[in-house]
């Protein structure tokens, strides 16, 4: 009985010791987003759209200074643009630009491996899934004809899908699915409490409501991002 009690207290002490090493922080940066257009899931780099992300992260050490579980919650933009025509010669070839910029609350769940390269410096690489919920966004159309430019803007329409509802009565290709999910790959470095990283987010689900053709990987979010952060 005494032995079991001692082991229980030891396990509890280890747990509290690990929790005392948990760090929380802030992180944000620049996104370059696109939406896949080919059957193999690749994108057209000319359709990439600049955006941003900002949020909170936590770092739970699984193996101190070597392996961590790093969840977070972010407000992030995604989307793409499509251009046609010639803006400088819009009299004979009218120019049109369509931009879609959905915005999500995203929760990444990354596992991060770290390699010490100095007293307070570590390189790291990570992988993990993400889950996102659409909350806002705009579609914008800009047209230039004979040097005259006009713009129209509308809110993105979201359907009322849930992960467990296959019979959504509010589906339509003019709407986006509310839920998105995928995987992240990232690499970076920690300097004391500061960190810098680059990440690629690969969406696994088609974003248009009613578009679930599993024979190709078109119409999925793709996001490259560069971040800076601080862990307290």
Description:
This protein is mainly beta. It contains 1 helix and 10 strands; from the N terminus they run αββββββββββ. An 8-stranded antiparallel barrel has the order 1-2-3-5-6-8-9-10. β6 and β7 form a beta hairpin. About 25% of the residues are buried.
Residues in β-strands, percent: over 45%
Number of helices: 1
Q: Over all CA atoms, what is the radius of gyration?
A: 22 Å
- Give the SSE order as H and E letters: HEEEEEEEEEE
Short summary of the structure?
Strands 1-2-3-5-6-8-9-10 form an 8-stranded antiparallel barrel. Helices cover 8% and strands 59% of the residues. It is built from 1 helix and 10 strands.
Topology:
Layout (H helix, E strand, L loop, with lengths): L1 H18 L3 E13 L13 E15 L3 E11 L2 E5 L10 E22 L4 E25 L2 E8 L23 E13 L2 E13 L13 E12 L1
Antiparallel strand pairs: 1-2, 1-10, 2-3, 3-5, 4-5, 5-6, 6-7, 6-8, 8-9, 9-10
List keywords for this structure.
8-stranded antiparallel β-barrel; mainly beta
